[in-house]
Amino acid sequence: xxxxxxxxxxxxxxxxxxxxxxxxxxxxxxxxxxxxxxxxxxxxxxxxxxxxxxxxxxxxxxxxxxxxxxxxxxxxxxxxxxxxxxxxxxxxxxxxxxxxxxxxxxxxxxxxxxxxxxxxxxxxxxxxxxxxxxxxxxxxxxxxxxxxxxxxxxxxxxxxxxxxxxxxxxxxxxxxxxxxxxxxxxxxxxxxxxxxxxxxxxxxxxxxxxxxxxxxxxxxxxxxxxxxxxxxxxxxxxxxxxxxxxxxxxxxxxxxxxxxxxxxxxxxxxxxxxxxxxxxxxxxxxxxxxxxxxxxxxxxxxxxxxxxxxxxxxxxxxxxxxxxxxxxxxxxxxxxxxxxxxxxxxxxxxxxxxxxxxxxxxxxxxxxxxxxxxxxxxxxxxxxxxxxxxxxxxxxxxxxxxxxxxxxxxxxx
Length: 413
Ligand SMILES: Cc1ncc(COP(=O)(O)O)c(C=O)c1O
What we know:
CATH topology of the largest domain: Aspartate Aminotransferase, domain 2
Bound molecules: pyridoxal-5'-phosphate
């Protein structure tokens, strides 16, 4: 099991004082805190490597090494090759970029499939692409009671006209982990391409794009203990074949052809550090050997992170359900912990989500209220107009004590 006390020592933000005392970070789905090695790597980049790329002088040579290293690190995180990893500002802008290029292959009679459980960043790029090309849009529904995708509906909506299926790995609202493997299989049967939004899954579990068989998969390092930056895996044949929106000197080889302008090099240094930190958890707690590959260490790390987070989820959900008036929008049964991440959205009778978030903020417990860009599901669940939810999102540096502190406040509101 992970030793959260040890882990917490390595996250500087967890020891800072905010309004005179330490805080509880339950705002993680909006962005996690960074490991000390991430801060150090970014300072190191800015101090000793800061330059633009492809020069013949030392800082530029070092910068090229940082860029190469970051692609390799994300490749290990996702289970692909380094040249199948594209960096960008964030998931949203990368998704728009890829959707622009894929739109060129759409036409009247074609369809894209999006889901009502997805963050809008995995909805509007595809809706707009379809609209521009005269293609149709299909929406897969959610089961409102359980906060899960309606898989029968997904199955029904995929047909011979489907060209792109965009689906989230884990919901940033309900915390549901979707059965993306099955959906990718269905898409494959009709020759549709798949785009997986793994932003909310990446901080919680091992991703294996080869095993999934997806065509694209996106994540954002600021959700997995690194700096603000986004990454996309694209299957090599697509990254080579598709037309990228680029300037001519960028060349026509991936990943460079997809990486517009000068990248966030210090961010890349930080991403590599974040992934190395995670791999280190695999050695420290997961039984991996120091000599194992980084990918293997990561697999071991996610196994222990998952076990620890399931323990937190269990306590959080059982505690919340014992507070009178609280309703959780998502899976709540004991047997469900493998089907959800530790992101829990709720409302409490007689209070708005804003009031709940404010009460927590007064006790230095940081949590989001609102609908978190998960617009379709908040509309579908009827909370869009009434302030959405309070969202408690936990990661492996959170503790049972923090949960108890939070429960006490919510009980008292
Ligand atoms: C599930 C999901 N997808 C996409 C995004 C957008 O990510 P980014 O901020 O990197 O564009 C978010 C951000 O919260 C998210 O939670």
